[in-house]
Write a structure and sequence with these properties.
This protein is an alpha+beta fold and 476 residues long. It folds into two domains: 3-282, 2-methylcitrate dehydratase PrpD; 292-417, 2-methylcitrate dehydratase PrpD (60s Ribosomal Protein L30, Chain: A), CATH 3.30.1330. The chain contains 21 helices and six strands. The chain has a four-stranded mixed β-sheet. A hairpin with a 4-residue loop joins strand 5 (401-407) and strand 6 (412-417). Mean pLDDT is 94; it is low at 5-16. Belongs to the PrpD family. It comes from Marinibaculum pumilum. Residues 289-460 form the MmgE/PrpD C-terminal domain.
Length: 476
């Protein structure tokens, strides 16, 4: 067992020997790049590449340009680049904008147990801050890893509880991960980094209310988490004091947000395996541009169609078995999920996504365009789609899904995806991730330019490439 786990012992009466924020700070500030296994570092670079490709693709959409207009109106100054866009912003605003682009299509990675989109916040926080501070790409990778290792453990400790009370873990947990990434790059001491987490406690947030009308607010959660973290680190560096018990305190993260349900949280999970178990290697890359909770059901529906040569005319009904913990996000209100009003609602509708996958063999970005979500054939099948809670689901270890089709000629056909494609135990390969990057990046870049970006990012941990040179390469 490593020093971070043993340090979180207990004293007489059950009190923790040291605050969790101090243990996490010691880990993040003391993290030596060379002690991270090469496989974990390589995976980190691939995850960053994936997010950068999504950011390029995101620049095609109106919401990205409206976000940029808003951010640019806050301050005319700043010289930090925005991925794929001809804009320069101040450090923190560039961080927010780049994170918005990485998360804007809901195509970015997820740590399954933590239910956190970690890279969307960690990559921009690490890369933009490293560029601003004149650090290397390697420094950015190490800071990124520190952020991910923190954020996903914070999410995992809640055991799905944040979603149940309307909070988005990506906005919450990433605020603390980003704090520690920024703390490393701003040269904070471990004591200052502990204070910074306490400061972030007062700024972390993220509401799931967007689910009711497809509003754009979810897209900004990773960026605002990065903003919170960067601000907290900058304040703490100047001696600003934050609460010591950011996580376990009477009004710490879990007690404040989860109230009575906080008793079921697993607080030791925050420091479990620090320095030994690398959660970055368990982050799941999305094969579909939609809420990860719906992937397995959509895949199952597509597989049934392919295996049995089915068309929509063959289907009397399509029933999807989903984990109980995802119902509020992708299944209800059911009438609204069957008729998504906009692309963002479609990305959070297991009914629409599964019907589309059944008919088209999968779900791609073009299946989520405004015209595509009004496809009468898809909507007609979505009308015949329902869900049930799956008591045998391994959620949150895996985001399982099952499709059952009753055909008009009386057959009942079932396929189950116990492990969602792309999860830690069924990962996408490095080749798959690079291919996904090229597919996304070439939506806005020439193949030659996309290849140049790909090669530079893949070299980020191997060469002493200045982070500002890399960020300049990504600029529009």
């Amino acid at each position: 067992m490593n020093q971070f786990s043993t340090d979180l012992g207990t004293e007489a009466g059950g009190a923790a020997s040291r605050p969790l924020s101090q243990v996490l700070a010691d880990f993040a500030i003391g993290l030596d790049h060379d002690t991270v296994p090469e496989a974990a570092r390589q995976r980190a670079v691939l995850l960053m590449l994936d997010a950068i490709g999504i950011a390029f693709a995101c620049t095609r959409y109106d919401f990205a340009h409206r976000m940029l207009s808003g951010m640019a109106s806050l301050d005319a100054g700043g010289d930090m680049p925005v991925i794929g866009m001809a804009a320069r912003l101040p450090w923190r605003d560039a961080l927010v904008m780049n994170a918005y682009l990485a998360h804007g299509l809901d195509f970015d990675d997820t740590h399954v147990e933590g239910v956190v989109h970690a890279t969307a916040a960690a990559m921009p926080t690490a890369l933009v801050t490293a560029a601003w501070r004149g650090r290397s790409g390697r420094d950015a990778v190490t800071a990124y890893i520190a952020s991910v290792e923190t954020a996903v453990r914070i999410g995992a400790a809640a055991k799905g509880g944040f979603h149940q009370v309307g909070y988005h873990p990506t906005g919450l947990a990433n605020a603390f991960g980003a704090t520690l990434a920024a703390a490393r790059l701003l040269d904070l001491t471990a004591e200052q980094a502990a204070h910074a987490q306490g400061i972030a406690l007062s700024t972390a947030g993220g509401s799931l209310e967007f689910l009711n009308d497809g509003a754009w607010t979810k897209r900004m959660h990773p960026g605002w988490a990065g903003m919170s973290g960067a601000t907290a680190a900058a304040l703490a560096k100047q001696g600003f004091q934050g609460p010591a018990l950011a996580y376990e305190g009477r009004f710490g993260l879990y007690n404040m947000l989860l109230q009575n349900a906080a008793a079921s949280c697993d607080l030791p999970r925050l420091t479990e395996g620090l320095g030994d178990v690398w959660e970055v290697a368990k982050v799941a890359v999305k094969p579909l541009p939609a809420c990860h909770f719906a992937h397995a059901s959509a895949d199952a529906a597509a597989i049934l169609a392919q295996q049995h040569g089915l068309t929509a005319d063959d289907v009397e009904s399509l029933e999807l078995a989903v984990p109980e913990g995802v119902v509020k996000v992708i299944c209800e209100p059911e009438a609204q999920k069957r008729r998504p009003a906009n692309p963002y609602e479609a990305q959070f509708s297991v009914h629409y996504l599964s019907a589309n996958a059944f008919l088209k063999g999968g779900v791609g970005l073009r299946d989520l365009e405004p015209d595509a979500i009004r496809d009468p054939a898809v909507l007609a099948l979505a009308d015949r789609t329902s869900y049930r809670i799956d008591p045998a689901s391994p959620f949150p270890k895996y985001f399982s899904g099952e499709a059952k089709i009753v055909t008009k000629d009386g057959r009942t056909l079932t396929h189950r995806e116990e492990m969602n494609r792309g999860c830690a135990d069924r990962p996408l390969s490095a080749e798959d991730i690079v291919s996904k990057f090229m597919s996304n990046a070439t939506m806005t870049l020439s193949p030659a330019r996309a290849a140049e970006v790909r090669d530079a990012v893949l070299m980020m941990d191997d060469a002493d490439l200045p982070a500002d040179d890399l960020l300049e390469l990504l600029a529009g």
